[in-house]
Each structure stands twice: as structure tokens, then as C-alpha cells.
Amino acid sequence: MTDSRPNIILMQCHDLGQYLGCYGTDVETPRIDELAESGALFENHFVTAPQCSPSRGSFMTGRYPHVNGLMGLAHGNWELEAGETILPQYLSRNGYETHLFGLQHITQDTDRLEYDYVHSEGNLYPGVSPSVHQVNRARSVADVVSGFLDRGAFESPFFATVGFFELHRVEEENGRFGFDGDRYDTDDPDEVRPLSYLPDRRGIRHDVAEMHGMVYALDDAVGTILDSLESTDLSQETLVIFTTEHGIAFPRAKGSCYDAGIEAALVLRCPEIADDGSRYDELISNVDVLPTLLDLLEIEIPATLDGRSFASMLSDDGAYASHDHIFAEMTWHDMYNPVRAVRTDRYKYIRSFWHLPKVYLTKDIFASEAGRMVRETDGVPPRPYEELYDLTESPQEDENVVYEPKYQETRLDLSRILREWMIETDDPLLNGPVPPGDYEEITAWPSDDT
């Protein structure tokens, strides 16, 4: 190990999915596009969970939510299991100075993360208070990071996690959850492109147009940090990652294991390794990112990780073997929604383990304009226990072919793969319903000691 190892800046935002210009979406994101053009973009990057804490926990540990214990939201009494090692700890133990800017959402105890320096307060949950809303907005966080870089207030090599609030919905005075349109430069609802997997209705267009304002602020913030790396001559010494934890906060996206829920941007720029604008279409899971970073830094990869490195794909040495399939899951969010899924290049198989509505609408989506447009059609009818989608014939996952005769071999094959994965990873769902994180509080009776 030498001091020539790159600095690392990891930028994470909320609820973005792949809603960026560089992923073909009708929105202008020139600075993130610029990062992709000077680095590498992963077109089929999927996360382990369509919700914040479990997905972030997988990214930071390289392990599935039901393996590392974070099966629900960190502010909902779920925590990583004791002994789980996370990315900043791996790096700190190998000579990196570690920093946290903005928010994180994998634990209620920031000390548990063991960053050397924490540069913001109230960095757990994006909906706690107006003051937290303000301090963790993208432009504010980017200014702090920029000052940190400009002052050289670090020892090399350093690792910095940069957590942006955007694109999380905000509860407004009328109880509606929107994208805080008064704060941002939003677009005209009549001019935005409808979401292909939802009906073209006014309330959905309204929310998409409002969300664009957050996208623009996020893009500006990424640009601020990229500019600081250039002006301080750190650009060629820094590995930059931009990603998010799940799909956008709309029905059939966030909170669902459809592609719109588990797709996530992943852009990586690393001098001499990922610096030519390459685009990769191999299946990638976010549990693969941590072992890839360890591999690139020549740090031993623990055998206990669920993900595997794709560093050899970047070097194009022919050694990388693509995933045949990736897995996704959900257990608890603001209600019980136990789901497991497996995706291949062509098929998606989803297994639900409870009596559930056709589409699970998280609290913020249910109480949004977009949610109001589909509550009766999506939030009421029962969901089948099995779903199978031919992504070639039904890319919007709106034609469940699980019972069609010609798909029975595929159904049985994918259900077997999913069940074997659950057995191999000791998934608690196989033993019955998973109690919530505050189960002891729910079942406790008052006593003279309370």
C-alpha cells in the first residue's frame, strides 16, 4: 500500500432510480452526464431493496438486508447486526481518513459508522425537521464539501460519503407529500414526458414536473463537487462514485420489486480504470460495489460478502463472468410487505409472502398527487402470490404470465433459484412472518418499573 492510492468520493441521493439524462430520461442533467462521459455508466445496475435503509445497508456491507439484519428503516427500530463491517470501516482500517457529509440512513447511532469526521448534524432521516431538510439539501451539502476540498482539510488518501436529501418527498402543510416545488425551479406539467409504467394523468404529471426541480438541484450539486476536484487538481487522484438507493418515489417504483423500484444509477470514474465513457449492460447488484472497491484498492475481500467484484469487467481482461441473475427483497417499510424477487436478463419472478394490495404504496407515495391517481386501481385489489414477467414482451411488467403454459418451465426454474437462495442465505421468511423491529415494545405490558 502506498499513498498513491486514490481518494474516494461517494455521492448518494434519495429516490432517483435512473431518472437522469445519461440514462435516456427526458431531463437535463449535464453535470452527471459529464461524469458518465468521463467515467463509466452501468445500465443494468439494480439494488437489493426498493427502499432506503435496507438498500443502503447492502451497499455499505456487500450483504443482503436479511443477512445483515437491516430489513426495515433505520428510524423504524431496525439496525445492522452487531459485528457487521461497513465500507468506511474497511477503508479506515487500511489507512484511509474517512468523512461523512450530509445524511446517512443505515443507523440511528452515527458513532456506529466509525467515520473519523462527521461534518453535519441530524443526518439520519430526511423527514425529521425543517432544519434537517435545510442542512442536507444538495446545494448546501455540496458547498460544505467544496470548502473541505478547497481548504485541503484532509489527509490523503481520504474517503468521503456525501449524502444528499434530494429526491425525497416532503410532507407539506396540507398533508400531501410533494417535491417541495416552492423551493426549486420546476417544469411545466404539460411539457414533461409521462412515466411509461403509469397512466398519463394530471396528478402524475404534476409530481414529475415538481420532481424535476430536485433533479436540477442535485445535478448542480454534483457539478459543484466536480468543479472543486478540478480546481484543486484532485480530479486525477480521486475515484468518484455517484449512485442512489432505489427507484423514484412514484407508484410501481419505490417500494416495489418491479424494475422501476430496484433500478438505480451507478456512475463511476476512476483514473486509468474507468475514464473513457464506457457503458456496461451486464447485470450488476449494489452488493457488488463494495467488493469491487476493495478489489480496486487491493484490499482483501471477505468470503462472507454476498456481492462479487466487477473490477475485471472494467479492465476488460476477459476474466469477468456476468451474473445470470440478481436478487431483490423487501420485508418492512411503514408496513409489512414481505417480497422476494429474482431477475435475469429476460425474466422477473416475484414471490409475495402475505396478503397484500396489488401495488404497495409507501406512505409518502400514497399521500401524493401521483398516489391519489392510482389508489383505487393499485392500492385495493389483492396481489397474486407469484408474478412472472417476460421483460422482452412486457418491459413495464404489466402482464403477469405466471400461469401461462409456455412459461411453466421458466416459472419453476426461477422459483427454484429464488428458494435455494433464500435457503443458502438463511432467509427468516422461510420460518414464517418476520416481526417488526419494535416487536418487544409492541408486546410489552406495563409494569411498576415503567
Overview of the structural elements:
This protein has 450 residues and is α/β, with parallel strands linked by helices. The protein folds into two domains: 7-315, Alkaline Phosphatase, subunit A, CATH 3.40.720; 326-439, Arylsulfatase, C-terminal domain (2-Layer Sandwich), CATH 3.30.1120. It has 14 helices and 16 strands. The protein has helices at residues 30-37, 52-61, 65-68, 87-92, 130-135, 138-151, 202-231, 259-262, 289-296, 311-315, 363-366, 369-378, 408-424, 439-443, and strands at residues 7-13, 40-42, 45-46, 97-102, 117-118, 158-163, 170-171, 177-178, 238-244, 266-269, 278-280, 284-285, 326-332, 336-343, 347-352, 386-390. The chain has an eight-stranded mixed beta sheet. A four-stranded antiparallel beta sheet has the order 13-14-15-16, with helices on one face. A two-stranded parallel ribbon has the order 3-12. A hairpin with a 5-residue loop joins strand 7 (170-171) and strand 8 (177-178). Helix 7 (202-231) packs across helix 12. The longest helix is centred in the middle third of the chain and has 30 residues, at 202-231. The radius of gyration is 21 Å and the shape is globular.
Element layout with pairings:
Blueprint: E1 7-13, H1 30-37, E2 40-42, E3 45-46, H2 52-61, H3 65-68, H4 87-92, E4 97-102, E5 117-118, H5 130-135, H6 138-151, E6 158-163, E7 170-171, E8 177-178, H7 202-231, E9 238-244, H8 259-262, E10 266-269, E11 278-280, E12 284-285, H9 289-296, H10 311-315, E13 326-332, E14 336-343, E15 347-352, H11 363-366, H12 369-378, E16 386-390, H13 408-424, H14 439-443
Parallel strand pairs: 1-6, 1-9, 2-11, 3-12, 4-5, 4-6
Antiparallel strand pairs: 2-10, 7-8, 9-10, 13-14, 14-15, 15-16
Helix pairs in contact: 1-7, 6-7, 7-12
